[in-house]
Design a protein that fits this description.
About 40% of the residues are buried. The radius of gyration is 15 Å and the shape is globular. It has about 190 residues and is mostly beta strands. Helices cover about 5% and strands about 45% of the residues. A hairpin with a 2-residue loop joins strand 12 and strand 13. The strands form three sheets. It has a six-stranded antiparallel sheet with strand order 1-14-3-8-9-10, with helices on one face. The protein contains one helix and 14 strands, in the order ββββββββββββββα.
Length: about 190
């Protein structure tokens, strides 16, 4: 369980080449508070000193999920889901964010909760270029690595976090949800 104040897991890897092309992030989460007073990062890293690369998969104060992928000069691909979590204690939810690269400057993002689409986007800001993503700071789980300093801590449980170097299809997301539901929720220990 992450306490929301200083707990985090350092993956020991920045995943720079992964975030320069199509990718998928999935995780089971059970926040202590579905609509916290602060933004909580489930998975994140940021090279903000030069704005050359940042990736956040986070829970917004509204109970929505958001994926932000940023490249030099703060050009972003930013997609927010519909509200997924109500205020108060919540149940486990399987989240998946899929970024599909069409070209260096175009693509699409689909966010899923329990195998169903809850948000899509295909309009990165002008100048966004996935191939220019450059960040050598390790990816954190349960917080954002902000140029070497952890912040935006997550409060609650996280399980079964996966990072894929491909954009999973809807059928693969559905299959992952079914497999992970059997494998990780019963024990809450699979990372």
């Amino acid at each position: 369980s992450f306490d929301g104040s200083d707990d985090r897991l350092d993956t020991g890897e920045p995943y720079q080449s992964t975030f320069q092309d199509s990718f998928t992030i999935s995780s089971w989460i059970k926040p202590s508070e579905g609509q916290s007073l602060t933004t909580q990062v489930i998975v994140g890293t940021a090279k903000y000193d030069t704005y050359s690369g940042y990736l956040f998969f986070r829970l917004e104060t509204s109970g929505a999920l958001r994926l932000i992928h940023g490249t030099p000069t703060a050009k972003e691909f930013n997609v927010t889901s519909s509200e997924v979590f109500p205020s108060g204690a919540t149940d486990w939810v399987h989240f998946v964010a899929v970024l599909t690269k069409s070209s260096a400057t175009t693509g699409s993002v689909t966010l899923y909760a329990n195998g169903s689409s809850v948000g899509t986007g295909s309009s990165p800001t002008a100048g966004w270029n996935i191939e220019n993503y450059a960040n050598t700071y390790d990816l954190f789980i349960g917080a954002r690595n902000l140029t070497g300093t952890p912040n935006q801590f997550y409060g609650g449980q996280i399980s079964g976090t996966h990072i894929f170097d491909v954009a999973l299809s809807l059928s693969e997301v559905t299959e992952l949800y079914a497999i992970d539901k059997r494998a990780s929720i019963s024990g809450h220990s699979k990372f």
